[in-house]
Amino acid sequence: MTTLSVVAIRLTRVSIPLTLVHAGSMYVIQKTERTVVELVLENGVIGLGETWGTPDVYALARRFARDWLGRDALDRFALRDVLGKSSYDNRFGRNGLATLAGLDLAAWDAVARSLKLSLAELIGARKRESIDVVSTLPAAILPQAVSRKELTGHLDVLANTKLVVEFALQQVRKSGFRSFKLKSAAYSPEWDWKLLNELREAMPKARIRFDPNANYGAATATELCRRLDPLGLEFFEDPTGELEGIARLKAAVKTPVATNMWIVKDEHLVPAIRRKAVDVVLGDLFMWGGIGPWRRMARVAHAYGLKPALHSVYETGIATVANLHLASALSEIEHPNDSGLHFLSSDVLAEPQEVKGGAMRLPSGPGLGVSLDRAKLEKMTLESTEIRP
Questions:
Q1: How far is C-alpha 100 from the geometric centre of its chain's CA atoms?
Q2: DSSP string, 324-375
Q3: Which domains does the chain have, with CATH numbers?
Q4: For residues 274 and 253, what is the distance between their CA atoms, to the nearest angstrom?
Q5: Residue 1 pLDDT > 50
Q6: Range with lowest mean pLDDT among 50-54, 92-96, 128-132, 356-360
Q7: Are 39 and 9 in contact (CB under 8 A)?
């Protein structure tokens, strides 16, 4: 094997329409934007990664990519230097971590391909070939993106909950989903209580997560979650804001409590463990800054009795497959993976990544085991650049 020096990085920002209107407490959207990363090594191997597709993250990716040229893809410490030596030195915040994670994923993929190992094997071991995944359920079923006022008007009509139930049953019939995440609009506790009861009645054996994205106040969230306790949900995800609020809610309910918002870096783990604030750390690969930090979080959380799990939004097949490899490699992961790939109208990969029986299979082959579909990528492209010496 020749050198693993980085000689070029191609960045492509894409926009992909969704096949549903995602309605929740944070936004109502009909598309996702991502930045696709292709990292070229001196040995000719190309690794794939992706990250958020905002203009700010895309600009940071160009900046970081220039600093990566000539560096060894195996030298994790040197590659992370673009953020600084410590969390204190990180002047780029969450955008910086997400940007680094996208480049980092491409480096892991390139190294694994060079060594002729799957990404799971490079991370630790390839222990599972099939990973259960979660289907998102929007707060409401809408024909098009609407204003907040229009959304709340829809939620005022409690009979409309049946549309979400039917949507969930469609996902069962189509792909065999056994796990669901309801994205609450955090507007009407009565809507959420009625809808979750109807979902449980329609799917008595399904795993169901409830996620208001911390937009319910602590008192309202605690009262609602106490009412929901008898349903046996998988967990309440960010039912209210801040670590202290979640800790107080957790002490008042029987259902497990999860967060992907309030434990997002190493220094959050200790106070969460001491406070017994959550049961599940739902870590996002991009918010944690890449595979290494995510793997470290999973091991520390598990050692102290917390369960790590993988958070995801509407990502392309690249990040979706990366999460499958993480779940395969790390025995600490017991919960199904978040996934929104099945709601993208198209994907950037040449190999279809399907959900069958509520699960996805790891691709075979080295690295991620997938390749880009150039024609599809070009149709989705908003802008692209290639960084070379």
A1: 15
A2: HHHHHH-TT--SPEEE-GGGBS--SBSS----BTTEEEPPPSSBT---B-HH
A3: 6-116+373-387 (3.30.390.10), 122-361 (3.20.20.120)
A4: 18
A5: no
A6: 92-96
A7: yes
